[in-house]
Specification:
Elements (H helix, E strand, L loop, with lengths): L6 H9 L7 H12 L5 E2 L10 E3 L4 E6 L19 H24 L3 E6 L8 H12 L1
Parallel strand pairs: 3-4
Antiparallel strand pairs: 1-2, 2-3
Length: 137
């Protein structure tokens, strides 16, 4: 199946997808800051360049987009009908990189917390952030 957009339109659409400072990530950062936690963001020296790093607690937090990181069983993870093989390769590559980064961080003594985009929707955000707080304290 061919793409429904022209190459220029597809390129423009893809350029608008952010990799940093996403809405879910900002929600978590705002919550942590409000609770008195201080952190660093996107630390390049650590495997996987974690979204949030709490050095005092030796903890890193990854805020994953359900589509881009292949959240199994999630309604936001739908494999596109065009270029399916390419998308599966891309998403499975992201999953493999996530696993490798997580293992490297754990071996280095870091506590790794992963938060999924779907857990930060209106219905579940309070319970997700409360459980995050309990993991940190």
């Amino acid at each position: 199946m061919t793409d429904v957009h022209s190459k220029e339109t597809r390129s423009y659409n893809m350029s608008k997808i952010k990799g940093k400072d996403t809405k879910p990530e900002l929600l978590v950062r705002k919550f942590l800051h409000k609770k008195g936690f201080r952190y660093r963001i996107h630390v390049k020296d650590l495997p996987g360049k974690p979204d949030i790093v709490l050095p005092k607690y030796k903890t890193v937090i990854f805020v994953h987009g359900c589509f881009w990181h292949g959240h199994e069983g999630c309604r936001y993870y739908v494999i596109p009908k065009t270029r399916t093989d390419w998308w599966l390769k891309k998403i499975n590559g992201n999953i493999a990189k996530d696993l490798k980064s997580r293992q490297s961080l754990i071996i280095s003594g870091w506590k790794v917390i992963e938060i999924w985009e779907c857990d930060l929707k209106k219905a579940t955000i309070d319970s997700t952030l409360t459980s995050l707080l309990s993991l940190l304290i």
